[in-house]
């Protein structure tokens, strides 16, 4: 799978704070056999986030775009709004799964406004800006991503191996 990682942080974009989430996610993705196509840091700016997400998704070079940061309650946190402006189809189960598992670790997970969805053939997923939270969130969803990508690419093998139960 091919990934883009977009870190959203005013301080990291200014060089005042080292981005730890993006590099740690990239390391985990590469270790799991994935490829990092693009990695970038932008400030908490709605227009800039929308521009990058749109460009990356429309380029059809990435299967998954992961955003890190900007999903909380701070007035500058606009990542979910930018993502919603860009996606064509919501994928609420992804963000729900991350929040559900994260609530087992910290009650602060309920403060996440993260979202996920699809634009063209690219899945866009918001993760926390905290490196530990970003990795934990990624671990929750990683196993479902290959199948999701297969479905988006209309891979004829996407449904092979699924066992459907019958109701009696």
Question: What does this molecule look like?
Answer:
This protein has 168 residues and is of the alpha/beta class. It has one domain: Molybdenum Cofactor Biosythetic Enzyme, Chain A (3-Layer(aba) Sandwich), CATH 3.40.980.10. Helix content is 41%, strand content 19%. It contains 7 helices and 6 strands, in the order βααβαβαβαββαα. The chain has helices at 10-13, 21-31, 46-59, 79-86, 92-103, 131-142, 145-152; strands at 2-8, 35-42, 64-68, 89-90, 116-119, 122-127. Strands 2-1-3-6-5-4 form a 6-stranded mixed beta sheet, with helices on both faces. β5 (116-119) and β6 (122-127) form a beta hairpin. α2 packs parallel to α6, α3 packs across α4 and α5 crosses α6. The longest helix has 14 residues, at 46-59. It is globular and about 45 Å long.
Topology summary:
Layout: E1 2-8, H1 10-13, H2 21-31, E2 35-42, H3 46-59, E3 64-68, H4 79-86, E4 89-90, H5 92-103, E5 116-119, E6 122-127, H6 131-142, H7 145-152
Parallel strand pairs: 1-2, 1-3, 3-6
Antiparallel strand pairs: 4-5, 5-6
């Amino acid at each position: 799978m091919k990934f883009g990682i977009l870190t959203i942080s005013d301080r990291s974009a200014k060089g005042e704070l080292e981005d730890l989430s993006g590099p740690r996610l990239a390391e985990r993705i590469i270790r799991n056999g994935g490829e990092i196509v693009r990695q970038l840091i932008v400030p908490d700016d709605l227009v800039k986030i929308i521009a990058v997400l749109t460009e990356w998704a429309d380029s059809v070079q990435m299967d998954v775009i992961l955003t890190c940061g900007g999903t909380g309650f701070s007035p500058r946190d606009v990542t979910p709004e930018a993502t919603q402006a860009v996606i064509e189809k919501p994928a609420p189960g992804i963000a729900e799964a991350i929040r559900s598992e994260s609530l087992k670790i910290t009650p602060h997970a309920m403060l996440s406004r993260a979202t996920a969805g699809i634009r063209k053939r690219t899945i866009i997923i918001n993760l926390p800006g905290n490196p530990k939270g970003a990795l934990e969130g990624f671990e929750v969803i990683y196993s479902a991503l290959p199948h999701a990508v297969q479905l988006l690419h209309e891979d004829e093998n996407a449904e092979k191996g699924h066992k459907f139960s019958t109701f009696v």
